[in-house]
Amino acid sequence: MAATSPYKAFRQHHRAVHPEPPNPSTLYPTITDANGSTLCEQQFYRLRTAIIERNDTAALGKYLIAAPWAVKRGHALGMYHDPFIVAARHGSVDTLKMLLDQYSMFIKPIGKTDLDGRCCRVLNTAAHSGHLEVVELLLDHPLLQADIHYNYNGYTPIMVAADASYCKENLEEKESVINFLLDRGAHASDAEYTWDYSLDSVTGESTKKQVPILMALNFAAEWAGADLIRRLIQSGADPHVKLMEDKEVTVRTDVTIISTAGRCANVDALKILLDYAGKVGDVADAVSYRDSWGSMPLHWACQVSMEEDPREMSTTFMEEKVQRIITTIGLLLNCNPETINA
């Protein structure tokens, strides 16, 4: 019995909805499937995306013959469907190599290229998704101007690798990417800053200072283990920094990384952070520090959120999380028992 084609949804030909002027980049190519049927591209280049997501080099080879321009930067569709972004997001290293080769042959860049302004975003996408092989390819490829220190929309590669938002299924892979970036010279201290404005309580004059709002160590404190937290600190990340947390509708300042680890019940990270706090001062003061809302780490440790629906969580998972919360609260109270009534 013949295997079902993963591309059977593309046997219908969908033309552009609105008339468009002749332009090779708006043509929808067709290719022949492995079973001999004709596959037709659709709006938003869904066929190309499906091929790259599957890391299907045979199908991509046919596609690039039919549409050699397919490596050009997209237009009003945005970057989500860009072929290089798709390959980086899904870890499709083989098809990414083909795309880079095709870009070199079709675009013919002089010297190294930033892929028409896409290279930094492609690198950040791979780092955020935890695809080490793709990150390594991008940094080592002779064609590319991949900058390990470039800040794209507030994030350097190490920062976005540490950020587990919308990407919590591959934390071990993200940790490998962070360690690799550190080996390559990434700055553990990377952060994004903003201006914090306040009124002097005595003079009434407005003052401002730069404060971090995004930081690799603070991201990692939400999920990373002791070894990675320790390495980030030893590599230059400041565990004593105070951050601003801007949630669009609410703003909290003077947030400590100890508070972040406590809020996420990350026991391993919290132990390392408390140890470093004790090396530079009184750890009791560190766990008693209040943010702009008047909350201490203990308060946030008592508000650990259940990201999953409790009705869909296994009993074992629930028990493990509750135990982490209990351990977190115990660690904070041991540092300063008086905070129990604060």
From TrEMBL:
KW RNA-binding (keyword) present: no
Region (Disordered): 1-25
Keyword Repeat: yes
Keywords recorded for this protein, A-Z: ANK repeat, Repeat
InterPro entries (alphabetical): Ankyrin_rpt (IPR002110), Ankyrin_rpt-contain_sf (IPR036770)
Name under which the protein is recorded: Uncharacterized protein
Organism: Fusarium oxysporum f. sp. radicis-cucumerinum
